[in-house]
Amino acid sequence: MSFTADVNGLQLFYRDDGEGTPLLLLHGFTGSGDDWRHVFGSPLSGYRTIAPDLRGHGRSTNPSGVFRFADVARDVFALLDRLAIDRVKAIGMSAGANTLLHMATQQPDRISAMIHVSGTPRFPDQARGIMSTMTEETRSEGEWADMRMRHHHGDDQIRALWRHAREFGNDREDMNFTPTTLSSITARTLIVHGDRDPLYPVELAVELLRAIPTASLWVVPEGGHGPIFGNQAAPFVNMAADFFAASPN
């Protein structure tokens, strides 16, 4: 079922399906909560899945025109507060994984276990270079059409997302996790990373592994950025189910 919640001055759209242990699903940048249907197909048995559209994505608004992952984390916590959910298991991909790092360091007790897919402690130079090319003038008609199918508040919303992507290229504060900060994470953590990720080299996943106290790492062979779709979806779903089954609530 789909709903909209007023949180932090914006309207946050989310899907809330299934029953059982709360499982938070956070999508990647320029994606939406609907993307998880291409991974799971249907909600995991025994879980209540909550899949928001992050601020400014999909059907969610962002009147401030600002996108910082620390703020997105606070948006998600505000949504969980509205739903009277104190503690969750979580999966985040790319932007969603970056948000989870903020959540797990802002309020560690509220994340019992998390799967961090294709995220990063900071933006490396190779990612910054790619981000700098995210202009509307360089987007193809096919890319515009794909974005219009995902994002429902008009072309200005889409332009804002590409602008935020360019802004990431200059960020040195929002995504700047040190080993000391990461060591405060108490959630049992699985890091999933493709060994061919063009944005974030696998060395950054190893850095997360060494800094997060309870982390383990699955490097996906021949995996790119977000190696959980298509023929990589079924192995990921099986692994996620086993990981969460072995994690305390």
Summarize the structure.
The protein is built from nine helices and eight strands. With 249 residues, it is an alpha/beta fold.
Structure characterization notes:
The chain has 9 helices and 8 strands. It is of the alpha/beta class and 249 residues long. It has a single domain, classed as Alpha/Beta hydrolase fold, catalytic domain (Rossmann fold, 3-Layer(aba) Sandwich). It has an 8-stranded mixed sheet with strand order 1-2-4-3-5-6-7-8, sandwiched between helices. α2 (69-82) packs across α3. The mean pLDDT is 96.
Tell me the name of the CATH homologous superfamily.
Alpha/Beta hydrolase fold, catalytic domain
Given this structure, which CATH class is correct? Alpha Beta
The number of helical elements comes to 9
Contiguous runs where pLDDT drops below 50 for at least 5 residues: none
CATH fold-type name: Rossmann fold
How many distinct folded domains? Answer: 1
Overall pLDDT level: 96
Radius of gyration: 17 Å
Task: Based on Cα principal axes, name the global outline.
Answer: globular
Spatial separation of the terminal alpha carbons: 24 Å
Total strand segments: 8
Q: SSE string, helix = H, strand = E?
A: EEEHEHEHEHHHHEHEH
Helix amount:
25-40%
> What amount of the residues lies in strands?
15-25%
Largest sheet: 8 strands, mixed
Indicate the structural class.
Answer: alpha/beta
Mind telling me which CATH architecture this is?
3-Layer(aba) Sandwich
Spatial arrangement of strands, main beta sheet: 1-2-4-3-5-6-7-8
